[in-house]
Structure prediction request, 290 residues.
Amino acid sequence: MRQLMLGNRAIARGLYEAGCSFVSSYPGTPSTEITEEAAKFPEIYAEWAPKEKVAAEAALGASIAGARSFCAMKHVGLVHPLPRRLFAAFAQSVQRLYIVEELDPVIETHVRSLGTLLASRLLGNVLLSCGYDVKLSEAHGMSQRGGSVVTHVRYGERVFSPVVDKGEADYLVCFEALEVARWLPYLKKGGRMVANTQTIYPVPVITGAADCPHGVIADLKRQADVTAVDALALAGQAGSSKAVSVVLMGVLSVMTDIAEPIWSAALEQAVSAGFLELNRRAFALGRAVK
Prediction:
């Protein structure tokens, strides 16, 4: 059975399959989820360390003791761990030690964190159910700092890269009005865009250092096929403002030739049972948008 996973979760699954039994990491986006996911396996002991050096030392110690070990940190972290000569001194043991450093995201899009990851999971499950090869690329670390979030979803008979280049996107879903203008260059000629009309003011506007542009979506409707929707209002009508992403997925679903039951089944996979009815209402309201 094929299962769609985010990259960090897949790494954790790989650790489990490889027989890793000890994980010590220093928390830092975007590598944090690897340790969180690894901790869900009873066979893996997982811990957070107070700094990168301590995490590396703990993982090295477990490796020396014979345990297959793992250590994760963000990209600047590898400057701080053990000196190379210390690793060299235990070269035999280090063969059982894995260290991962992850880069901060480079591409920025969408809005801080309004369910973009849920939307990509939902869409990915839909496409996977249709028999497509699916690749997801998600840069969500920026959201923890008030920045943008981007999700690329590519599908087809065989997909090798998860990244969508400029002018290649068949569909563009924007969770906030200003992101519509920022990411329009990625939409291909004849592509379709779903745009939430909600505006979230960036820091320069809040502080008075810059003015917020108005009429962005109206201007872009003259350049592209844009379906504008007040997803925040519809989400509130469904029962929670957090359902914005599912409303937008409902709008997108009507634009595709994928049957509604497939979307509904994927929605059941993507959300927990306690919130399923709320999200079903949000999805239905999105599908009703004309």
